[in-house]
From TrEMBL:
<dbReference type="InterPro" id="IPR035926">
    <property type="entry name" value="NusB-like_sf"/>
</dbReference>
<feature type="binding site">
    <location>
        <position position="317"/>
    </location>
    <ligand>
        <name>S-adenosyl-L-methionine</name>
    </ligand>
</feature>
<protein>
    <submittedName>
        <fullName>RNA-binding Sun protein</fullName>
    </submittedName>
</protein>
<feature type="active site" description="Nucleophile">
    <location>
        <position position="371"/>
    </location>
</feature>
<keyword id="KW-0949">S-adenosyl-L-methionine</keyword>
<keyword id="KW-0808">Transferase</keyword>
<dbReference type="Pfam" id="PF01189">
    <property type="entry name" value="Methyltr_RsmB-F"/>
</dbReference>
<dbReference type="InterPro" id="IPR023267">
    <property type="entry name" value="RCMT"/>
</dbReference>
<dbReference type="GO" id="GO:0008173">
    <property type="term" value="F:RNA methyltransferase activity"/>
</dbReference>
<dbReference type="GO" id="GO:0006355">
    <property type="term" value="P:regulation of DNA-templated transcription"/>
</dbReference>
<dbReference type="InterPro" id="IPR029063">
    <property type="entry name" value="SAM-dependent_MTases_sf"/>
</dbReference>
<keyword id="KW-0694">RNA-binding</keyword>
<dbReference type="InterPro" id="IPR006027">
    <property type="entry name" value="NusB_RsmB_TIM44"/>
</dbReference>
<dbReference type="GO" id="GO:0003723">
    <property type="term" value="F:RNA binding"/>
</dbReference>
<feature type="binding site">
    <location>
        <position position="274"/>
    </location>
    <ligand>
        <name>S-adenosyl-L-methionine</name>
    </ligand>
</feature>
<comment type="similarity">
    <text>Belongs to the class I-like SAM-binding methyltransferase superfamily. RsmB/NOP family.</text>
</comment>
<feature type="binding site">
    <location>
        <position position="301"/>
    </location>
    <ligand>
        <name>S-adenosyl-L-methionine</name>
    </ligand>
</feature>
Length: 418
């Protein structure tokens, strides 16, 4: 199977079967026999088509008189346009490869694909011309109009535009150094130049790096862990002391759980709760690779966890809309939302906060975090929670946007029970 055929199959799974792009691509990287350059192309093509799908559909539909009922054939057209506009691919090559793909799926569409793809190379066709001019930029960025308006209503024009301009900038990679295995001096002396490592300014053990990390054994032996630094910052804000009791209420795939272990040098009792049983293997694999021991894991809904004791530290990285990680999970922008779906999400978050409170000891500390920029899930959710619990004191709150530090968007709030 060549690169374009693989990309087509992956896109079909992501768009029509609601699979996560990052999971499928990472699995592909591990198991595919394609060359590194072909794998890189597959990543670029899959992420790109998902990122710009709304815009690509707008342009392709200019040329279609009727709907293309075969879903894979339609994806081939989107792939072709992306290659022309964003990868500057050669016209004859894109046409030829697109027709070959179409013949494998349904030869009856070969002529249509040939005709449409040839026309897609025309740059005048790429111009967006819609009545509502304020929606031109969101459309060209592949962002639904409703989502751009949603962010603008919550934060204003300036922040919404900064967010929009950054929304497809996923060219960032960070690692967390496991200082229990390798100290900072040794890491920098041996890997700074190779990885172009730059210390992340807000955290202790995080570095911005390049893709050469995959050419080393650092990941294999748990010396480092790939993790967004703001995810790690949530753990540092919690700042657990040694010999304490800690619970991570939504712990897979184990990044924050393992960092809490490292921060307390393995001296604390740590409990991890994970509702999604499908994440069991990756969670245990990540913990084992980092040599994390003596951590209790329960695969159960956190709301159903029957805690026999109270905890000094509670970390609740709550399920959320994910608007902060659209850069790395571009399919989030394609998800259909309505008032009811949001209300259900807000209710779950509220219930999880109440559960966290019930497990928090006096003078205990709770960090609530999400990877979204939706105020209803973040500060408004916390304000409602605080109104119900006057014995809680807010000591830290920050909404991060991806464009500020070249990360994902993230929200962190710390509360102390008095």
């Amino acid at each position: 199977m060549n690169a374009r055929n693989l990309a087509l199959n992956l896109l079909n799974e992501i768009i029509y079967n609601n699979k996560f792009s990052n999971k499928l691509l990472n699995k592909t990287k591990e198991k595919s026999n394609l060359s590194k350059s072909d794998i890189f192309f597959v990543f670029k093509l899959v992420y790109g088509v998902i990122q710009y799908k709304i815009y690509l559909e707008y342009v392709v539909n200019k040329l279609l008189k009727t709907e293309v009922k075969n879903k894979k054939i339609f994806i081939i057209l989107l792939m072709a346009l992306y290659q022309f506009k964003f990868l500057n691919s050669k016209g004859y090559f894109v046409v030829n490869e697109s027709v070959l793909l179409a013949k494998k799926i349904d030869s009856n569409y070969a002529a249509l694909v040939n005709a449409v793809v040839r026309k897609l190379e025309n740059k005048e066709l790429w111009i967006v011309n819609i009545k509502n001019k304020k929606n031109i930029i969101p459309l060209t960025k592949g962002i639904p109009f409703w989502l751009y308006d949603f962010i603008k209503k919550q934060y204003g024009q300036s922040i919404a535009d900064d967010w929009l301009n950054d929304v497809n900038n996923n060219e960032h990679l960070y690692l967390r150094l496991n200082s229990e295995i390798m100290d900072e001096k040794h890491f920098l002396n041996n890997y700074k130049e190779l990885l172009n490592a730059e210390k992340f300014e807000l955290t202790k053990n995080f570095y911005k790096i390049n893709n050469k990390i995959f050419e080393t054994d650092l990941l294999k032996y748990g010396t480092v862990y790939l993790q967004d630094p703001l995810s790690g910052l949530a753990c540092e804000v919690l700042n657990p002391k040694s010999n304490s009791k800690i619970i991570d209420m939504c712990c897979a795939p184990g990044g924050k759980l393992s960092y809490l272990y490292n921060l307390t040098k393995g001296t604390s009792k740590i409990v991890g709760i994970e509702k999604n049983l499908s994440k069991k293997n990756i969670l245990y694999k990540n913990l084992e690779r980092q040599n994390i021991k003596n951590v209790e894991i329960f695969f159960i809904d956190a709301l159903e966890y029957d805690s026999k004791e109270l905890f000094n530290y509670v970390l609740l990285d709550a399920p959320c809309s994910g608007f902060g990680v659209i850069k790395n999970k571009p399919e989030i922008r394609l998800k259909k939302h309505n008032k009811n779906s949001f209300v259900e999400l807000y209710n779950i978050q509220g219930k999880l906060l109440e559960k966290a409170y019930s497990m928090l000891d006096v003078n205990g500390e709770l960090v609530y975090s999400t990877c979204t920029i939706n105020k209803n899930e973040n500060e408004y959710q916390i304000n409602k929670f605080l109104n119900n619990h006057k014995d809680l004191k807010k000591t830290y709150e920050k909404q991060f946007f991806g464009y500020e530090y070249n990360t994902n968007g993230f929200y962190i709030c710390k509360l102390i029970k008095t």
